[in-house]
Every structure is written in structure tokens, then in C-alpha cells.
Design goal:
Elements: H1 19-72, E1 79-80, E2 83-84, E3 88-89, H2 97-103, E4 109-114, E5 122-124, E6 137-138, E7 158-166, E8 171-173, E9 183-188, E10 207-212, E11 217-222, E12 231-233, E13 256-270, E14 278-284, E15 296-302, E16 304-313, E17 333-343, E18 353-358, E19 364-369, E20 373-381
Length: 389
């Protein structure tokens, strides 16, 4: 019989997978999928932690560079014949007390210590957005400056420094013949201080200093008229004290040099870019409860959670918190130890865990969450206050 015509054997069955074999295959497949997921999750966590740490390190280095630069150059003054001049300060200390204090030629910096975060303390850092009371900080005599209240966050110190920058403008004094006049006329240095008058560009509310090395004079005021004016005005009532009977009998001419004094606060506040995040801020020539004329506020680095400061006094190897400077005398402070704690932009850890950091002067700071952090520490000498023997 032809094979094509044969009928299939009704007893024959097609071979295939049994139920047991199918279940074993499914279990093996699940094991493989679980292993792949575990490797993926582990790789993702490792990448997130590495990226978070890199971002924190980058921000920490940037923050330290900015703070160190301003701190290193703090306390500078105009130099005439190799010697610094002592300024006459006309800025009203009642109007802006910390700013006026730092403008003193003997001062270079001030610090405000947040309570219980000093030498040999164990401090638990709460990274929530919480503003402390002014009395939570101290420079040894008083609490936080008014401007920083409701701006500086709890758990971080505050630093104030004073710098004196030579102006790049082509300005010199002229037409200054009136005794006790509250202004200094300005003309072009390129024109050898002769007429016509030239606008100085110092905006209303800004600080300015003029120097006459020939006469050994230096005066510091707040500008009370517009930057388009052709005279630097030091009238009382605009943040300056009254000259009264004091002599302004100085004929500022073509030897006059214009400087820009800056009193800068570094503090940790709430980021304006990312809600709920901390950031390092710099505020320049600010006072009072509002952002007044001449005040500049800059958000520098997001993720800076705490700034911890200690200070070294001339002839003393110890590190002191701001509220324990010997005799509360800031004039002999010659160096500052700066510590910043910076967190990753996002949560990267797989679980909440406590991190503990050892900072200068025996301070230990602990914080608990899913972020990863980097700590940078550095001691900066105040170059303008170091005495060379």
C-alpha cells in the first residue's frame, strides 16, 4: 500500500513539554529575570551615588574657592608709600552697625557661631528649611545682624568679611574747595583732573572710599546721590553721620583714587532655584530688614547645607568658635578654618542612613537621610593681617 494512503495510527501522540517541564522553565526564567533586575538596580544605584558624589564634590570645591578668595583678601586697605591708611568712617554705625564696624581699618572679619556647633560639640544637623532666632547665633557679644534674620538657616555659622577694591573707573577728584562740604567733585584722570566734570558711576546707597596719598587722607561714605552725578556725596541722613564741626578741608584733586569697600556676609539660606534645598549665599553691603539701596544678594552654590567656622588668633595655635574669641577681640584674628557640608542634588541611597563627619576643632556633625555628602575643610590665612617680622 502506498505510504501516502496509509491512515494515521490513532494511538500515536505528538511529543511536547509536560506541565512539570513548563513550570521548571518558568522558574528558571524568573530567576534569570530577577538576577538581571538586581544587576540593573545595583548598577543604577552605583551610578546615582557616583553622580551624586561628583556633583557634591564639584559644588563643595566651588563654594570653598569663593569663600577662600574673599576671606584671604579681607582686611585690605589703601596703600600709600607702602603703608596702609587708616580711614575716616562717615558711615552711620546706628544705621548699619556691623557694616560700619567692619569698615574700621583694624577689622578684617567677623563671625557668628550657631549654638552648640562649636569646638568638641556633637551636633545633629536638621536639613529642613528652618530659620533660627537672632539669639541662636553669637559673635561673642551680639546676635545675628538684622539683615540676616529670616534669611540665615539654623545649623550653620555666618561669616562677615571686609574688602577694599580699587575702582577701575577713570575718576579723580576736582573742584573741591569748600571747607566742610559734603561732596567731592569728580573729573577724568586722563584729563589730569581738570574740567569738565565726569560722572563717577557710584550708585545711590553704595559705599565708596577716596584716597589722597599726598595728604595721607582716606574717607569712607555711603553715596547719597545718583551714579550719574559729578560729585561723590556724603550728606548726613543717607546713611552717613553729620560732619558737624569736623574738617573736610581736603582739596581732592588729580591724585585722588577711588575705592569700593565691600562688607560681605556668607550664610546658608533657602535656595531660590529649588524649593526645600539649602544653598550658600553672599550678601554685599546689606543692612536693616529689607534689601536696601546698594545691597546685592547672590545665590552662589546649591546644596551647601552647613558652613562651620573656627578662627585662629595671632600668637595662639588654638582654634576658636566665633562666640569664644579671647576677649571678644576680633582685631588679632589672623586665620579662619572653613568647613562646608554639601549634599547631592537628589536622594541616591537605597535606605535612610546616618552619616557622621569630623570637622575642625573636634566638632562632629551627623545627619540622617538618603542623600550622599561631601565635606571640604581648609584653613585660610588673612593675608592683609599677617605681620611679617
Amino acid at each position: 500500500m502506498n505510504a501516502l494512503c496509509r491512515k494515521a495510527n490513532p494511538g500515536a501522540r505528538q511529543a511536547g513539554l509536560s506541565l512539570v517541564e513548563l513550570m521548571i522553565a518558568l522558574v528558571l526564567g524568573l530567576f534569570i529575570i530577577a538576577a538581571v533586575i538586581q544587576v540593573f538596580s545595583s548598577s543604577r544605584l552605583t551610578y546615582s551615588m557616583s553622580d551624586g558624589l561628583a556633583r557634591a564634590q564639584e559644588n563643595a570645591r566651588f563654594a570653598m574657592e569663593i569663600v577662600n578668595r574673599d576671606l584671604r583678601m579681607s582686611g585690605g586697605s589703601a596703600i600709600c608709600a607702602g603703608a596702609p591708611l587708616e580711614p575716616t568712617i562717615w558711615v552711620d554705625p546706628d544705621d548699619m552697625p556691623e557694616v560700619a564696624a567692619l569698615l574700621d581699618g583694624q577689622m578684617s572679619l567677623l563671625g557668628w557661631e550657631y549654638g552648640n556647633s562649636g569646638a568638641d560639640d556633637d551636633f545633629e544637623l536638621d536639613t529642613a528649611i528652618e530659620f533660627g532666632q537672632a539669639s541662636d547665633w553669637s559673635d561673642g557679644q551680639s546676635g545675628l545682624p538684622e539683615f540676616l534674620q529670616d534669611r540665615a538657616l539654623a545649623g550653620s555659622d555666618v561669616l562677615g568679611v571686609r574688602n577694599m577694591h580699587a575702582s577701575d573707573s577713570d575718576i579723580t577728584g576736582c573742584n573741591n574747595n569748600n571747607i566742610n562740604a559734603a561732596n567731592i567733585g569728580t573729573c577724568s584722570r586722563a584729563n589730569d583732573g581738570d574740567n569738565p566734570p565726569l560722572a563717577h558711576g557710584v550708585q545711590q546707597g553704595d559705599l565708596w572710599a577716596v584716597v589722597d596719598c599726598g595728604g595721607g587722607f582716606m574717607d569712607v561714605c555711603r553715596q547719597t546721590n545718583a551714579g550719574s552725578a559729578t560729585n561723590l556725596n556724603c550728606a548726613a541722613g543717607g546713611g552717613n553721620i553729620s560732619k558737624g564741626g569736623d574738617s573736610w578741608d581736603i582739596k581732592y584733586a588729580n591724585q585722588t583714587e577711588l575705592y569700593r569697600p565691600e562688607v560681605t556676609y556668607f550664610y546658608v539660606g533657602e535656595s531660590q532655584r529649588t524649593a526645600g534645598r539649602r544653598a550658600l549665599f553672599r550678601a554685599i553691603n546689606c543692612h536693616g530688614s529689607n534689601i536696601a539701596a546698594g545691597c546685592r544678594v547672590e545665590e552662589l552654590v546649591e546644596g551647601v547645607e552647613s558652613l562651620q567656622l573656627f578662627f585662629r588668633v595671632d600668637g595662639d595655635d588654638n582654634l576658636y568658635a566665633a562666640d569664644s574669641i579671647p576677649g571678644n577681640d576680633w582685631e588679632p584674628v589672623r586665620a579662619a578654618a572653613v568647613n562646608v557640608i554639601v549634599s547631592s542634588p537628589t536622594e541616591v541611597d537605597s535606605a535612610v542612613r546616618e552619616q557622621t563627619f569630623s570637622l575642625d576643632a573636634g566638632l562632629t556633625v551627623s545627619v540622617e537621610d538618603r542623600h550622599i555628602r561631601e565635606v571640604y575643610s581648609n584653613t585660610v590665612a588673612v593675608r592683609n593681617r599677617i605681620k611679617v617680622h
